[in-house]
Amino acid sequence: xxxxxxxxxxxxxxxxxxxxxxxxxxxxxxxxxxxxxxxxxxxxxxxxxxxxxxxxxxxxxxxxxxxxxxxxxxxxxxxxxxxxxxxxxxxxxxxxxxxxxxxxxxxxxxxxxxxxxxxxxxxxxxxxxxxxxxxxxxxxxxxxxxxxxxxxxxxxxxxxxxxxxxxxxxxxx
Length: 173
Prior knowledge:
The protein is α+β, with helices and mostly antiparallel strands. It has 2 domains: about 5-130, Alpha-Beta Plaits (2-Layer Sandwich), CATH 3.30.70.1730; about 130-173. Helices cover about 60% and strands about 15% of the residues. It is built from 6 helices and 5 strands. The protein has a 5-stranded antiparallel β-sheet with strand order 2-3-1-4-5. Strand 4 (about 105-110) and strand 5 (about 115) form a beta hairpin. Helix 1 crosses helix 3 (about 55-65) and helix 4 (about 90-100) packs across helix 5 (about 120-125). The radius of gyration is 26 Å and the shape is elongated. Belongs to the universal ribosomal protein uL10 family. Keywords: Ribonucleoprotein, Ribosomal protein, RNA-binding, rRNA-binding. One of its GO terms (molecular function) is large ribosomal subunit rRNA binding. Forms part of the ribosomal stalk, playing a central role in the interaction of the ribosome with GTP-bound translation factors.
């Protein structure tokens, strides 16, 4: 079923809207995946704030024009799934994890910071810690000197209390 011109314009506008906040995008060949598998992929992606859509290549090309994702143009051949997200690591993890379980999903390439990346780079990106993990590490690193200082300050009165308790026990014996 072909789309009318107005519907095509809506699809292109919706794709451009998704690309505005995206930091990275990936295209993958989905030939052979069932509807249930595609639904499972979309559910996983939605949990990670990743937009996954099957769209005609011509409409995607039109949506990419004028964005830093325009370098994807050379990869748009055949039946492709398009994914975009604000967190490049989450995007890569969702797609590579799904591709490991379903060999029919083949990562074709993507765009990160306006540069085209291959499937190997997407694999490497998926091995990086997530944004939340990096923020937790940063917070732990920032808190370490302060908590060490507090423990040091707390040790003086704690040692005094232990000394008093030892003196009390010695006199009681």
